[in-house]
Every structure is written in structure tokens, then in C-alpha cells.
Design brief:
single chain; 233 residues; alpha+beta; Arc Repressor Mutant, subunit A; 9 helices; 5 strands; 58% helix
Length: 233
Amino acid sequence: MSDRDAAQAFVDLADTLIEDFDVVDFLHQVTMRCSQVLDVAAAGVLLTDQRGALRVVAASTKQTRLLELLQLQTNQGPCPECFYTGRPVAVPDLSVAGERWPQFSREARQFGFGSVHALPMRLRSEVIGALNLFSTEVGSLDVGTLRLGQALADVATIGLLQARAAVHRNILAERLQSALNSRVVIEQAKGVVAERRGLDMDQAFTLLRSHARKTNRGLSDLALAIVRGTETL
């Protein structure tokens, strides 16, 4: 990780917030940037919906998404604990976390992860989600890396809360809920593209995202058109 890479990550995320932005695409970019500049294997984001329940919004890999979903199903794991306590959670060695989170630790190790860290998406006393960082190596992330990771989580949090400040609170809640719902449509579109092109799900998402940007369309709008069959790539 270089200072230039870190600086570019913040510039890119800030640039996304200049105009009205696609929440799902923005948070996916956060997870990808975390993987790049923090030198972790994968990252994921959980956000609260209108009812205050955690939902998976973005993940840099398919395995990460499955682990995030498992945490929600069991209500156990570093991300839920981080969200409910509002404090970072560090698990330097997943092999000794069996008693704490048996299912999560087992599945995470099967996917090849050795450690995990969760950082709160928080501004002052308000916590809106959590950022999960997965590493294949056993051991704690160094202090500098954790600070940078928290800074990236803070940028994402500020971006979402800034959008809420620009409109009435319940309007942003509807936007976040819409983003959560659109995730289902995006997953369906990924499946369609993957089947038609003979790609895996990650490659299908990359193709969808690239086409949406090239055609200056929202990722959710493109996904819906593909699912409905009114557009093909």
C-alpha cells in the first residue's frame, strides 16, 4: 500500500459523492478500495434498513457475501457485534473463535480466511452499519492499517449521512431501502449474465457495472432491464 494509493482511494470515493449517487455501487467501490489499499483479501458492508435490521449491501467477493449473510442468519459474528456495540472487533485467529461464533468461524476458515476485523460505520453516536475486513493470514492488522480502514468506513458513513442531511430523514431511509431491495434484482441479473456468457458471478457483476458506467445508467436500472428481458449485454 502506498500513500498515493490511499490518497487516490479517498479522492475516488469523494468524487462519487459530488452528484446523486447509486448507493449499492458506491458501497461496492468502498469494499473494493478496502481490499486494494488495506491489503486484505476481501471486504463487506452491512447496513441497517428502515426497521433497524442489518442487511448485506456490498461485498467484494462471493465468499464474503455468503459469510455476511451467515452472520445475519445466526446473528453471530464480528459484524453484528461491531454494529451493536459500536466498537471495532478484531479476530486475529479464526481457529480459536469456535466457541464464540462456531458456524461463522468454521465457514470463514473453509473459505481460506485466517483472520477478520470489523469496523463500525459510525458518526458520533449514530451507527448505521459495519465494515468487515477478511485476511487469509493469521494475525492482527497493524495500527496504521486499522486507522486507514476506519477512515474509509468513516468516508462511507459521512457520504450516506450527508445524503440524508440533504433531504428529509425518511426520504433517505426509502433510498437506502430501495438500494437494499435493488440488491436482489442485481443478484438476479448477475445470474442471467453469468448463464448467458459462461461467466462466474463476480465476472458477471464486473461486466454489469462496466456497462452501466459506459452507458451512464444506474446499476439497478440496468439490472432490472436485464431481468425483465428488455435489454441484453
